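Morning F.,

Quick status update on the modeling queue. The single chain you submitted on Monday has been processed. Sequence for confirmation:
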Amino acid sequence: MRLVSSDGSDFTITLYTLMHHGYDEMGWQKDVTIKARELWAMDGYDIQLPRITPQFPILSMDEPSIIYFVLALDDGTKTWVVALDTGSKKVLWNRETRTVPSDEDLEMSSYNIFCNMPFFPCEFPKYLQKAATR
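Structure tokens below.
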């Protein structure tokens, strides 16, 4: 997955699949490309969601067509986690998250959400595992 942004209002999300082209040859095949205006027009992209560049994109562990990403306002006041089905081109759900305890100063909030580190567990997805041969 690749997310390219020229500024906050223009970005492209591109998903690729690693394909086998013979016994020892592999290459990347482009599967899906979603531009900013397409994302914002999708079913499920609620009016309260900001029109900004997604951050921290990651593929679902179980469904290769589903991606998750974060939308965070620059002032740190609101942050959402969003699930997107790239196959049906539909936003499945979004959840506003608290990134800062209520008694903490807002200046320490989600400017640096999750310390710029991935926040979902990483392991080989189930759909990449092959059946064992005996």
